[in-house]
Amino acid sequence: MATLFVRLPNHVGDAVMTMPALNLLEAAGFKLYLIGKPFVGELFEGTNRRFDPIEGNLLDDIKRIRDLAASVKNPRGILMPNSFGSALLFKSAGIQSTGLATDGRSILLEHAIPEPPRMHEVERFWYVAYEALKAMGIKPPYTKLTKRINMKLAARNEAGARNLAAKIGLPKRYAILAPIAKGRHEGKEKYWRHFNELCKPLRDRGIEPVVFPAADEAEAAKAACPDATIYEPTSLGNFAALCEKAAIVIANDSGVSHIAAAVGAPQVTIVGVTDTDRTSPWNEKNVIVGRKGRWPEVDEVITAIDDVLKTKN
């Protein structure tokens, strides 16, 4: 089985959205070696694919990836990110790579794939994988992209989530809230300001609102949603397993919304500044409230929650 190195995107949501593309590459007969930021590795543990982290120091990363590539005859790779730096890393490590002809990096690529028209990011990553196979002279094993990610959870994360739930006394019916979204989109804040107003309506419906913040978001989560039950941060893999068991996940358009989509959780995604045709969670169970340029009112979100809960039941 031939080995293929795959450079993953740097952000959690983007990394999740590559999963259907990775499945296509694996179905084509490749053994995948995944390369990416350390914090995304746990999301891929259930696939039993090798994952090697990059730490951000280019020279150290090149040496480490070069040593890894040296164990493979004629190492080849695929770049999921659009950046020049990702192409430079693989080129410097001796990996002949294929990727989109973006950021002036075509000279570093074995095969430069033309940019596709505007499409969802899941479709874009799929396009990269599909066209890369064709460029390498390999017929893609299938052509249909389904509206499911089907993330495989590691057994240790499923067990970790069960043990954590028992330890903290997590209620049987809970809603995971994700009130924080880092960074800005086109200069605008990416988070909805009214998550705390969902706590009483959820409890009225017999569902406990809970937050599992990232380690660097704990204080911001408490400020944004003080009436929710806020637990200590947990690992990304355990968090994904907790999302899978939740009655509902309510999040901004963020990494959390994409993790929920990946495990097939019932969810409501709240948007106000992002393009839902490009970055909405890839999940048929997802309900989007709001649109670019207009955050939703609280009653709109509550109506969406009820619609999702009815569908689930």
UniProtKB/TrEMBL annotation:
> Coiled-coil ranges per the record?
none
Q: Any idea which UniProt keywords this protein has?
A: Glycosyltransferase, Transferase
Question: What Pfam family is a match for this entry?
Answer: Glyco_transf_9
User: GO CC terms for this protein?
Assistant: cytosol
Query: Which GO terms of the molecular function aspect are on file?
Result: ADP-heptose-lipopolysaccharide heptosyltransferase activity
Q: Which InterPro entries match?
A: Glyco_trans_9 (IPR002201), LPS_LOS_Heptosyltrfase (IPR051199)
Write the signal peptide boundaries: none
- Could you tell me the Gene Ontology terms of the biological process aspect for this record? lipopolysaccharide core region biosynthetic process
* SUPFAM superfamilies listed in its UniProt record: UDP-Glycosyltransferase/glycogen phosphorylase
Keyword Glycosyltransferase in record = yes
- The answer to whether the entry has keyword Thylakoid is no
What superkingdom heads the lineage?
Bacteria
This one is known as Heptosyltransferase
- Annotated organism of origin: Parasutterella excrementihominis YIT 11859
